[in-house]
Amino acid sequence: QVQLAESGGGLVQPGGSLRLSCAASGSIFAINAMGWYRQAPGKEREFLARITTGGGAYYAESVKGRFTISQNNAKNTVYLQMNSLNSEDTAVYYCNAVSTYAFWGQGTQVTVSS
After folding, report:
1. Residue 78: how many CB atoms within 10 A of its CB?
2. How many C-beta atoms lie closer than 10 Å to residue 87's C-beta?
3. Full DSSP string of 8-30
4. Which runs of E-coded beta strand occur in the chain?
5. Angle CA 26–30–36, to nearest 5
6. Strand, coil or helix: what is 94?
7. Are 98 and 42 in contact (CB under 8 A)?
């Protein structure tokens, strides 16, 4: 089992930035990759970014150039730096870890509004 705890969400003005964190615990040795998804009201969950244990990063076209995923292996933590936020980025953001199974965090709310 892998437990994931997101943090860093909140209210930000358009054009602003936020950094989300996801701390993993449990059977972390089995994790192959970690990523971020989001789900806006009335929409399906959307893939944003993924980073492998080797450091390879992959992004959805919709956030490429604005969002950056990174990891601190010593802290078992993955980050999502989000810049140039707009109202369409308002959603619940979820951390994901993949081993034999997929694990999800509880989500953190990001609201972009003036």
Report:
1. 28
2. 10
3. --EEE-TT--EEEEEEEEESGGG
4. 2-7, 10-12, 18-26, 33-39, 46-52, 57-59, 67-72, 77-82, 91-98, 102-104, 108-112
5. 80
6. strand
7. no
Amino acid (1-letter code) at residue 41: P
Q: What is the pLDDT along the chain (114 residues), one digit of tens a residue?
A: 899 999 999 999 999 999 999 999 988 888 899 999 999 999 999 999 999 988 899 999 999 999 999 999 888 999 999 999 999 999 999 999 999 899 999 999 999 999
Q: What is the Cα 17 distance to its own chain's centre?
A: 14
Whether 69 contacts 78, CB under 8 Å? yes
**Strand 2-7's sheet: what is its strand order?**
2-7, 18-26, 77-82, 67-72
Residues in the chain: 114
CA 31/CA 82 separation, integer angstroms: 24
Do the Cβ atoms of 108 and 96 come closer than 8 Å?
Answer: no
